[in-house]
Amino acid sequence: MKKFIVAIDQGTTSTRAILFNLSGEPIYTSQKEFTQYFPKDGWVEHNPNEIWLTTKKVLIDAINKCKKIKGKILTIGITNQRETTILWDKKTGKHIYNAIVWQDRRTAEFCKKYKTHKKEKIINKKTGLLIDPYFSATKIKWILENVPKAKKLVRKNQILFGTVDTFLIWKLTKGKVHATDATNASRTMLFNITKNKWDRDILNSLKIPKNILPEVKDCSDEFGYTDKSITKKSYPINGVVGDQQAAAIGQSCFNVGSLKSTYGTGAFIIMNTGNKKIYSKNKLLTTICYRLNGKTTYALEGSIFIAGAGVQWLRDKIKIITNASETEKIVKKLKSNNGVYLVPAFTGLGAPYWNPNARGIICGLTRDTSQNEIIRATLESVAYQSYDLFNAMKNDGLKPNLIKVDGGMVKNKWFSQFLSNVINTKVIIPKVQETTALGAAFMAGLKIGVYKSLSDISKNWKIDKKFVPKISKRNRTILLKGWGQAIRKTLI
Predict the structure, then answer these.
(1) Does the pLDDT of residue 43 top 80, yes or no?
(2) Which of 254, 263, 372, 480 has the most CB atoms lying inside 10 A of its own CB?
(3) Which residues, 6+ apart, have CB-to-CB distance to 65 below 8 Å?
(4) Can you tell me the distance from the alpha carbon of 16 to that of 427, in angstroms, rounded to the nearest whole number?
(5) Could you tell me if 168 and 80 are in contact, meaning their C-beta atoms sit under 8 angstroms apart?
(6) Is 278 left (phi over 0), alpha (psi -120 to 50) or beta?
(7) Strand pairing class (259-263; 402-406)
(8) Four-residue CA torsion sign, 160, 162, 167, 169
(9) Are residues 67 and 94 in the same domain?
(10) Would the pLDDT of 113 be above 90?
């Protein structure tokens, strides 16, 4: 009988369940999109029930597929959009407000007031993060203070908080397990990454009760069993890891200095820094890469809020493309960007700027500008933002010489080559590009002994494509100068 691991990959725009064989090859994928809600400028929400229903559907679909091919599922791993915040009634299991998504900027004003130099220094030292609406803490605070039902349930000790992984574990186990892993906990701005526990002082400062928070486990651990009423047979959940850290695991970034970047809805660069916490002088984040057997491996991270979401904007909002795949053909026809730059600060700017109030601009327009230049500028913007992050790492004394990439955008060969040109670094694409889900599968398999060690996991990683810089220093300088001017206009 063939053996498999199922990974649930709950992302910002869709939920997937992927059936992996024990060599880490995807055998079957079930995917379902769900609705994005934008109630106000800078607000981004999901309906937690939609997240749950899409998860249940794709998981059952993957289980049924396994039965058809006479296979056996050994364990389940979960990876998820990080920072997204859900509060629910622990008696009914119903959410008390929509999930506030990681992109949401509604707490920008509070963060501005909360952010004294001394306070940010303390927060940064304890959590590795900056005071920003991006993280879960101020989202929790907002719900507790603005949703009448929340106040009532707090008084009754009847409310629970979780990032998306926690919510799904709670639903899958029928309320038996309220837990998260260290990587997701480290993105809340409430978790002390040195002491590996929720920080009481920060909780008190934000008036968030500790009893609403989940238990924090290792990435490879026991997270309970799925309830038979949901999955007919009970399956163990043995791996949980936030999506970007999961991608680092799926890319076998286990050595100090190894680096990956995922180009999905947003883009995220993570560098493994081993047992050493590196505090950036250039506004990169210090975070947990993974925690195994109680031992923490740290990472340095840079976040780009809009990557693939920019292409979605071209498709869904201004409707100049019908699908993402056509962008490659379009931009190939252009010899240059003709001086057109787009800064996609649709929900503010992430690292290294951390400006929640910045808004997107297009500059360099002339009467000759067509929609093709705007399409190209959208793709280019992701490479330029990656350059900003690489530059920040170099200014912190780190010298990455190659980058492992994954995510939907790198299917575009033009983009992958342009990325290599701009960051002046070798770009490597792996054979299996479902690295986020793969990372969760690896963590689940590690717990039950399918994989004996991280080096055992590494044996499954293989190169598919390689891109090296093919641009002159002069042309790179000209491109980056134009980007720098565009950024300055955005930040005015």
Answers:
(1) yes
(2) 263
(3) 19, 28, 30
(4) 26
(5) yes
(6) beta
(7) parallel
(8) negative
(9) yes
(10) no
Residue 151 has pLDDT above 90, yes or no: no
217 and 329 within one domain: no
What's the one-letter identity of residue 477?
T
Indicate whether 122 and 260 sit together in one domain: no
Same domain for 41 and 131 = yes
Instruction: State the Cα–Cα distance between residues 357 and 166, nearest whole angstrom.
Output: 30
Contacts of residue 68, Cβ cutoff 8 Å, sequence gap at least 6: none
Query: Does pLDDT of 72 surpass 90?
Result: yes
Confidence bin at 322 (pLDDT 50/70/90): confident
Structure token pair of residue 483: 């980007």
Domain with 82, as residue range(s), is 2-243
Mean pLDDT score, 195-223: 95
Going from the C-alpha of 380 to that of each of 184, 189, 363, the distances in angstroms are: 30, 31, 13
437, 383 Cβ separation under 8 angstroms: no
How confident is the model over 225-260, as pLDDT tens digits?
999 999 999 999 999 999 999 999 999 999 888 899
> Is pLDDT at 148 greater than 80 in this prediction?
yes
Straight-line distance from the first to the last Cα atom of the chain, in angstroms, rounded to the nearest whole number: 62
DSSP secondary structure string, 64-106?
HHHHHTTEEEEEEEEEE-SS-BEEEETTT--BSSPEEPTT--T
Task: Read off the pLDDT of each residue in 38-50 and give the average, rounded to a whole number.
Answer: 93
Statement to judge: residues 82 and 99 lie in one domain: yes
Which of 267, 342, 250 lies closest to 301, judged by CA? Answer: 267
What's phi and psi for 40, nearest 5 deg? -145, 170
**Tell me, what DSSP letter sits at residue 349?**
B
Q: Tell whether 68 is covered by a domain.
A: yes
Instruction: For residues 288 and 181, state if they share a domain.
Output: no
pLDDT given at position 27? 93
Q: Which amino acid is at 194?
A: T
Residue 440 falls within a domain, yes or no? Answer: no
**pLDDT higher than 90, residue 41:** no
Owner of token pair 């010489």: 401
Task: Give the residue-averaged pLDDT of 456-463.
Answer: 91
pLDDT at 140: 96
Number of domains in the chain: 2
Q: What are the start-end ranges of the E strands in 421-473?
A: 426-430, 463-467
In whole angstroms, give the CA distance from residue 429 to residue 462. 9
Task: State the virtual CA torsion across 206, 210, 213, 216 in degrees, nearest 10.
Answer: 110
Does 273 score more than 80 pLDDT? Answer: yes
pLDDT of residue 356: 79
